[in-house]
Design a protein that fits this description.
Chain A is 54% helix and 13% strand. Chain A is α+β, with helices and mostly antiparallel strands. Chain A is globular, with a radius of gyration of 22 Å. The two termini of chain A are 32 Å apart. Chain B has one domain (3-255): HUPs (Rossmann fold). The structure holds flavin-adenine dinucleotide (2 copies).
Chain lengths: 403, 259
């Protein structure tokens, strides 16, 4: 694949029109008001039939799973179809104006729902998965804690203790996307059997908002990504049955599950970066032609030309990474964690550089909220932090090279 | 109920258009898109067919180079199929020639109702639909701001300067709709995927039983003799408020006979 297909372009145009009609004019309210992003996201899902498609996909998948493992593995391989890449297009288009929206959507559908869909029992998928996939309900995926971020498992303090047939959960999580509003929370913790914390099993539970002992904080104030609510979760003696233990077994390889999730969230970052870079470049080219200093449009100055050229190089490279993901998806192949890390590292860094250069190219206007690049620049920074920091991506790539 | 929608595929109005210096008409070589004006007609037709509980929406278009991009957009919205007339001999066809071609193509679909926009975005002569109706010997109702079909009749609120007229006419008929008559739907993911496999019948002038001298530059009764650049807009007048700005604004509007 070296260019978007006719169908993909049609979808891009349609989603762009939706974003420019529904989101761009309301960006101030979404970024700085009290309006959570969910109703707008639901409207997008409904408008493009994404909710009905998610439901139909879910039902077909559950039917196959009930038929047995043979049917499941057979149909899941391959899968190249006209819709390849369709799910990446809303990510790209939303990010042109509002990367926060994508974070809120991506965590709910991409992380919380995916965790349940890949490791849950059929009953758990039916109970929580389908409503998350259709965005009827909003999900959080909670691993980070005040004392454990990059070293997610090593320093994890949240615990589950057995109590008869039940578990009692304790701990606190922070920086949790959708935390303040989530209906469904995927909570990752360690099974405390009185043994050394580093030997403890990692378990995943599914919680509902409003359960006794579970507290969801107000949104935290942050540098950017304002349309994605981020918060803390506090659990004190939350009692849950085995039906909330993901997979309903303690033998579930939860570390592996979480790593699959890391790989998935990393691949989404290239599409996000592409949206931000495309818009920064487009705005910068227009501004460079329009803004006159020293009697010339600033686009005639070589130092400005260099910025534009570098932005274009980044755009092409990131777009190629996205094309590769689409091709791999169509061929039924997934990226290794190291490759996903490499893509994420490059896309995040290139995106940050482009957004900073866009602010610079706009001069004083670049620093003003009105011109849009200021917001994208603040938003872009998070791509180097969440889903694994740049430093963590680097060490993962190196580990894979040296192993 | 079978509905035909005339859809014009035009050069993207967001890109600066270019005139062919020879024919002095718009260059149409690149990708063409669905004229926004026609998205309203497509939506209206889909709603009417859905309400009638059966029947199909067929698109009819004349465009150069076998162009189907704009048609695919309308198919993704939900139209069932399309007829495209594309033929080198159509170069230089004027509005009447276009009407002859479209009328011949429309006839093949045997519609109960034909929907077009009031005027296109690029040519905007606003003459094509009524010429099609005349050639087909059908009644036409223009400037529809709302449309309903019942008991073999189409009922239209027809926009006028003062408000609207309520007009009714028997089917088959042709109507033209104004922008804003309905809100065009977005094509859904599924609609876009399905559009690829919907039939687009491509016809030549000969297929329609027309002769080459009825169409193209040869058949044109109009000729563009000259093209001049539009006059640059004059700078506006800035009124600085020194307490009497409102009076000066009123006087200015009064002088233009706007109030
Ligand atoms: C002298 C002359 C030479 C021309 N030469 C060429 C040429 O070489 N190549 C060329 O491509 N065009 C050419 N045109 C443009 C011509 O073919 C127009 O499509 C036609 O005149 C319709 O005019 P309009 O857009 O003003 O229609 P309007 O009357 O403004 O259109 C009203 C509605 O009619 C329908 N409609 C109009 N045109 C079409 C169409 N083509 N297919 C389907 N539905 C339609 C749409 O619903 C549209 O909204 C020429 C026009 C003139 C006057
Ligand atoms: C907006 C936002 C949304 C988020 N959403 C979620 C969510 O939904 N769910 C969730 O669980 N988490 C979420 N997070 C948390 C995010 O994943 C973590 O912030 C991230 O993994 C980094 O962890 P930390 O903040 O504890 O930083 P630390 O791990 O404390 O890192 C501090 C610095 O040290 C560096 N560092 C750490 N270890 C090494 C090493 N071995 N070698 C070199 N350098 C190192 C880091 O790269 C960083 O520069 C979110 C964060 C943000 C900002």
């Amino acid at each position: 694949m070296f260019e978007w297909t006719e169908e993909q372009n049609m979808l891009r145009e349609a989603v762009r029109k939706f974003v420019e009609t529904e989101i761009a004019p309301n960006i101030n309210e979404l970024e700085h008001g009290d309006t959570p992003p969910y109703d707008t996201l639901r409207k997008m899902y409904k408008t493009f039939g994404m909710d009905a498609m998610a439901r139909a996909g879910f039902e077909a998948r559950i039917k196959r799973e009930k038929e047995g493992p043979a049917a499941t593995s057979e149909r899941r391989s391959g899968g190249g179809d006209a819709g390849a890449g369709f799910m990446l297009i809303p990510i790209i288009e939303l990010c042109r104006y509002c990367p926060g929206m994508v974070t809120a959507m991506g965590v709910s559908v991409g992380l919380a729902a995916s965790a349940i869909m890949s490791k849950g029992t059929i009953a758990q998928k039916e109970r929580w998965g389908v409503d998350l996939l259709t965005l009827d309900k909003i999900g959080s995926w909670a691993i980070t804690e005040p004392g454990s971020g990059s070293d997610a498992f090593g320093s994890m303090k949240s615990t589950a203790r057995r109590d008869g047939d039940e578990y009692v959960l304790n701990g606190s999580k922070t920086f949790i996307t959708n935390g303040p509003y989530a209906d469904t929370i995927v909570f990752i913790c360690k099974l405390d059997e009185g043994n050394d914390p580093k030997d403890r099993k990692v378990l995943t539970f599914v919680l509902d908002s409003g359960m006794p002992g579970l507290e969801q904080s107000k949104p935290l104030r942050k540098m950017g990504l304002h349309s994605s609510p981020t918060g803390e979760l506090f659990l004190s003696d939350v009692r849950v049955g085995r039906d909330r233990l993901l997979g309903e077994t303690e033998e579930q390889p939860s570390r592996e599950g979480a790593k699959e999730t890391f790989s998935m969230e990393r691949t989404g970052v290239a599409a996000m970066a592409l949206g931000i870079v495309e818009r920064c470049l487009q705005e910068s080219v227009a501004y460079a032609k329009d803004r006159v200093q020293f009697g010339h449009p600033i686009g005639e100055f070589q130092l400005i030309q260099m910025k534009l050229a570098k932005m274009e190089v980044a755009r092409l490279n990131i777009q190629n990474l996205v094309f590769r993901q689409i091709e791999m998806g169509a061929a039924g192949k997934g990226m290794s964690l190291a490759e996903a890390s490499a893509c994420k590292l490059y896309a995040a860094q290139a995106c940050m550089e482009v957004a900073l250069e866009a602010v610079q190219l706009f001069g004083g206007n670049g620093y003003m909220a009105e011109f849009g690049v200021e917001q994208l620049c603040r938003d872009a920074k998070v791509l180097q932090i969440y889903a694994g920091t740049d430093e963590i991506q680097i060490s993962q790539i190196a580990r894979s090279l040296l192993s | 109920m079978n509905v035909v929608v005339c859809v014009k595929q035009i050069p993207d109005p967001a890109q600066p258009g270019q005139l062919d210096p020879g024919s002095k008409t718009l260059k149409r070589e690149g990708k063409l898109i669905l004229d926004d004006s026609d998205a309203y007609g497509v939506e209206m037709a889909l709603l009417l067919a859905e309400k009638a509980g059966g029947g199909e929406v067929t698109l009819v278009s004349m465009a150069p180079n076998g162009e189907t991009s704009g048609l695919r957009t309308a198919l993704a919205m939900g139209a069932a199929k399309a007829i495209l007339v594309s033929d080198d001999s159509l170069a230089g066809t004027d509005a009447l020639g276009t009407a002859k071609v479209l009328a011949a193509a429309i006839k093949r679909a045997e519609p109960d109702l034909i929907v077009a926009a009031t005027e296109s975005t690029d040519g905007y002569t606003g003459t094509l639909p009524v010429q099609v109706a005349e050639i087909l010997g059908l009644p036409s109702v223009t400037f529809a701001k709302s449309v309903d079909v019942a008991d073999g009749k189409v009922k239209v609120n027809r926009q006028t300067e003062a408000g609207y007229d309520e007009v009714e006419c028997p089917l088959p008929a042709l109507i033209t709709v104004t922008a804003g008559v309905v809100e065009p739907r977005y094509p859904s993911f599924k609609g876009i995927m399905a559009a690829r496999s919907k039939p687009v019948e491509q016809l030549t002038v000969a297929d329609l039983g027309l002769s080459a001298d009825q169409v193209g530059a040869a058949g044109a009764r109009q000729e563009v003799v000259d093209v001049t650049a539009a006059e640059e807009r004059k700078a506006g007048e800035v009124i600085t408020d020194e307490g009497d700005a409102h009076e000066r604004v009123v006087a200015f509007l009064d002088q233009l006979k706007l109030i």
